[in-house]
Design a protein that fits this description.
single chain, about 110 residues, mainly alpha, 5 helices
Length: about 110
Amino acid sequence: MTRQDGLDVAGLQRRLAEFAAERDWEPYHTPKNLAVALSVEASELVEIFQWLTPEQSARVMEEEGSAHRVRDEVADVLAYLLQFCEVLGIDALAALSDKIDRNEIRFPPK
């Protein structure tokens, strides 16, 4: 998947791998550690919304302070997910497409 600005999943995975390699972090990027880190970052995203009403949560991107926090946590979740997929050799987009295919069969429209 490539966006018009040139961003794509494989390119981002390469940048993340280079970032980790330059800091000698690869030994710590095991599937277990990355799954744990992903869970922690997802929890930090949840924390932003924890005590908001549904209406407040729908407006969270209207205020720059909360919008910035949401964008940062989304980035952290995506970064760890992409690193997890890279380490295990999972094509994230293919996995998602396959899951949607299965869900379309499992949950047909009414």
